[in-house]
TrEMBL record:
It is a multi-pass membrane protein. This is Chloride channel protein. The keyword 4Fe-4S does not apply. Keywords: CBS domain, Chloride, Ion transport, Membrane, Transmembrane, Transmembrane helix, Transport. The chain crosses the membrane at residues 140-160, 217-237, 275-292, 298-314, 326-350, 400-427, 439-456, 510-531, 537-556. The gene is LOC114240531. Its main location: membrane. It comes from Bombyx mandarina. PANTHER family: CHLORIDE CHANNEL PROTEIN.
Length: 827
């Protein structure tokens, strides 16, 4: 995103208003009119020219207008000194520059404050060796921060993978020799059998633990009961931890991360308790066998680590806009470790979650994702050479004709995704507004119980979802014993090409089981996504698509076996070798459903080929992802994350949406015509007057005007800053009473006699962004998106008319789209 794409238009409006103020109002204060040619615009901490030529700091660093004539070469050093001290002076009043919970940040102010801080450090570097070291530390702190985030994310991901793998196998049995081993690790030392059977002598299933060595009804019932019991224990623990310690740890977290990265403050959402409970709860909920994944929550976990580690570097910890650069890099690292896809992670952060993504953040995200993937690879949680669970080995070229079924899979994926999104949002809305929402732990236990009871009889739903995806992606070879590979083949040489063959009875039985698994997983995931445990959506979406894709793939494969000579197969299927790979169809189907659910395109294709190693299959993946997105967009406007943002009412102004209405700023501003606007005058209100205004109104900020009669604009002051400044003055300045006059302008003569006046020019934003009442709302909405505004002031001929806040813009957009404007949540 461009940093100041609308700079020229914004500046012009500001100058028009400022010129009116100077030419009209300031004449009364003893200042003559100045010509517009002597004014220049700069991004500096605000400086206000007093009548006697002394400069005084006034703002936190915003667009500021000052007189060119006052800056001759002789006084530039003095000017800079005052300018930098003004920047540092923000800290004199504790809390200034911070934000309340559930408020939007002011991107312009924060970025300008950081730019001023940087100029100050660069200037000081020449003073001493210590200042030079501090300057160097400031320069590399961003890279050090993302390095730490990458290392921490990789370690946490390794812990989650190992913990979830062990606890998932605990539902089926135990390793008596070393109970902390999962089934695969337990069987490593056993040489009697292949691991595919899963029944090596070292690993005991629960019936074997209780002395039942057979495969009869008794053993089946014991296994069934233990499967359900462990699932309920894990789910109950996860839901209870979330409810007691960190309610923010539930769900995937991606809708909230998108909202936070757009500039919204949700205190505690990225805190240490949320991190701890999310990690533990995620291991438990994945192990319980619920239809959910750990990939989405990994983005939340990585963002928590980014937030916590950013406080080690005040440059990022104290500046909300700069902190979001670290959070964008952390989100990339989260996807990197979830899928073993560092490039896909960077593209996911850019395409799906980030709001402000300058080139510098792209490089840091790349570095962070790289470090995280390297650390996870070093930990090697899966005990093989791959950092993901479902890596594919085949490399057979695809036939041009196959693009037709691939696009067909994209259409199927888009339809499945639309059904899922609409049903899930309907259920989540019902949960939110009914009594069901008051019993989160009970709901989790009921969903877990139903899932476990229905999942166990079907081997494809009983197994871990990641193992199911691996099985569906895999190519049938000599070592595969699954019914999916029950073809009428005779393998004479393990290294020879796999020949075409008719599907046996096992394949047809497996297809019926897969159809049942598809329906079951779709229904169960609708009810699971949104319950109060950490739960992601990537793995269930991939599983749904992989099942559909494998079924289609077997169909095309059998068609090629039956009619090898028809022109569709270009003669490539007449050699006797197997020319159709059903596993590839599973891969394409998985991408199609995930693309339809999340509306990802570029990042999805890159994640899929990094995930599977199938670089040769980029074109089929692209075709399916594009078809899926088109179908999804035609049947429903929003992806699952945007739909959940809208459901929860988060103030998210999507930069991808277009505003197509013809309303004007005057139609949206508050207050409406014939209503009074709450303002503060620059030099005629007492402390009592200001405190009364703060008590009687709930606005986040107030325009400061010359007088209530003239309504000429002086600046804008935030409610939080006003409260802090008055409280600080009462504590530190002797004699301040309720009758003390509050002065916001540095060029106003102080009132004579006691009590002493209160000078608050430093907390005044002297150059708030303004528009006229006839500005099209399309332009206003663009300004809010691209400049990250909290509010803009509306003027007419230089006189203040009203204010437009981000909340007003969101409500107006909802109203124009015939949606409920009151659904927007704000503080």
């Amino acid at each position: 995103m461009e940093r100041f794409p609308l700079k020229s238009s914004v500046t012009k409006t500001g100058m028009t208003y400022q010129s009116v103020y100077k030419k009209g109002a300031n004449t009364a204060n003893g200042r003559g009119a100045h010509s517009g040619e002597d004014e220049m615009v700069d991004i500096t901490p605000g400086l206000q020219q007093a009548a006697d030529g002394v400069t005084t700091p006034t703002s936190h660093g915003t667009f500021q207008i000052y007189e060119q004539g006052s800056r001759n070469s002789a006084s530039s050093t003095h000017w800079d000194t005052i300018m930098f001290s003004g920047m540092q002076g923000d800290d004199d009043i504790p809390g200034i520059g911070q934000y309340e919970d559930f408020h939007t940040i002011d991107w312009q102010r924060d970025i300008a404050r950081d730019r001023m801080r940087h100029r100050y450090i660069v200037k000081k570097r020449q003073d001493s060796i210590w200042d030079l070291i501090k300057g160097a530390h400031d320069a590399w702190s961003g890279w050090v921060c993302v390095l730490l985030v990458g290392v921490a994310t990789g370690i946490v991901a390794g812990v989650i993978d190992i913990g979830a793998s062990w606890m998932t196998d605990l539902k089926f049995g135990i390793c008596p020799a070393a109970f902390w081993f999962n089934r695969e690790q337990c069987c490593w030392s056993d040489t009697n059998t292949t691991f595919d059977s899963g029944n090596c002598s070292q690993w005991l299933t629960w019936p074997q633990v209780f002395g039942d060595r057979g495969d009869g009804a008794g053993a089946y019932i014991i296994s069934y009961l233990f499967y359900i019991l462990w699932a309920l224990i894990f789910a109950a623990l996860s839901a209870s931890l979330v409810r007691m310690f960190a309610p923010y740890a539930c769900g995937s977290g991606i809708p909230e991360i998108k909202t936070i990265l757009s500039g919204f403050i949700i205190r505690g959402y990225l805190g240490k308790w949320t991190l701890i409970i999310k990690v533990v709860g995620l291991i438990l909920s994945v192990s319980s066998g619920l239809s959910l994944g750990k990939e989405g929550p990994m983005v939340h976990i990585a963002s928590c680590l980014g937030n916590i580690l950013s406080y080690l570097f005040p440059k990022y910890g104290r500046n909300e806009a700069k902190k979001r650069e670290i959070l964008s890099a952390a989100a990339a690292a989260g996807v990197s470790v979830a899928f073993g896809a560092p490039i896909g992670g960077v593209l996911f952060s850019l395409e799906e979650v980030s709001y402000y993504f300058p080139l510098k953040t792209l490089w840091r995200s790349f570095f962070c994702a790289l470090i995280a993937a390297f650390i996870l690879r070093s930990i090697n949680p899966f005990g093989n050479e791959h950092s993901v669970l479902f890596f594919v080995e085949y490399n057979k070229p695809w036939i041009f004709f196959e693009l037709i079924p691939f696009v067909g899979l994209g259409i199927i994926g888009g339809c499945i995704a639309t059904i899922f999104i609409k049903a899930n949002i309907y259920w989540c809305r019902y949960r939110k507004y009914s009594k069901l929402g008051q019993y989160p732990v009970t709901e989790v236990l009921v969903v877990t119980l139903i899932t476990a009871i229905l999942a166990y009889p079907n081997p494809y739903t009983r197994m871990n979802t990641s193992e199911l995806i691996y099985l569906l992606f895999n190519q049938c070879g000599i070592s595969n014993s699954d019914p999916l590979c029950d073809y009428n083949r005779n393998f004479t040489d393990a290294n020879s090409a796999i020949e075409k063959a008719a599907a046996g009875a096992g394949v047809y039985r497996a297809i019926w089981l897969l159809v049942l698994a598809l329906v079951f997983k779709l229904v169960v995931t609708i009810f699971t996504f949104g319950i109060k445990v950490p739960c992601g959506l990537f793995i269930p979406s991939l599983a749904l698509g992989a099942i559909a894709g494998r079924i289609v793939g077997i169909g095309v494969e059998q068609m090629a076996y039956t009619y090898p000579k028809i022109w569709l197969f270009s003669g490539e299927c007449s050699t006797g070798d197997d020319c159709i790979t059903p596993g590839l169809y599973a891969m394409v189907g998985a991408a199609a459903v995930l693309g339809g659910v999340t509306r990802m395109t570029v990042s999805l294709v890159v994640i899929m080929f990094e995930l599977t190693g199938g670089v040769r299959y980029i074109v089929p993946l692209m075709a399916a992802a594009m078809a899926s997105k088109w179908v999804g967009d035609a049947l429903g406007r929003q992806g699952i994350y945007d739909a959940h943002i809208a459901l929860n009412g988060y103030p998210f102004l999507d930069s991808k949406d277009e505003f197509q209405h013809t309303s004007l700023a005057a139609d949206v501003m508050q207050p409406k015509r014939n209503e009074t606007l709450s303002v503060i005058t620059q030099d005629s209100m007492t402390v009592d007057d200001v405190e009364t205004l703060l008590k009687e109104t709930e606005h986040n900020g107030y325009p400061v005007v010359v007088s209530k009669e003239s309504q000429y604009l002086v600046g804008f002051v935030l409610r939080r800053d006003l409260n802090l400044a008055i409280a600080n003055a009462r504590r530190t300045i002797e004699g301040i009473t309720g009758q003390s006059v509050v002065i916001f302008a540095g060029n106003v003569a102080p009132p004579p006699g006691p009590p002493p006046y209160l000078q608050l020019s430093r907390i005044l934003d002297m150059a708030p962004i303004t528009v006229t009442d006839q500005t099209p709302m399309e332009t206003v909405v663009d300004m809010f998106r691209k400049l990250g505004l909290r509010q803009t002031l509306v003027t007419h001929n230089g006189r203040l008319l009203g204010v437009i806040t981000k909340k007003d813009v969101l409500r107006h957009v909802k109203h124009m789209d015939n949606e409920d404007p009151s659904s927007v949540m704000f503080n």
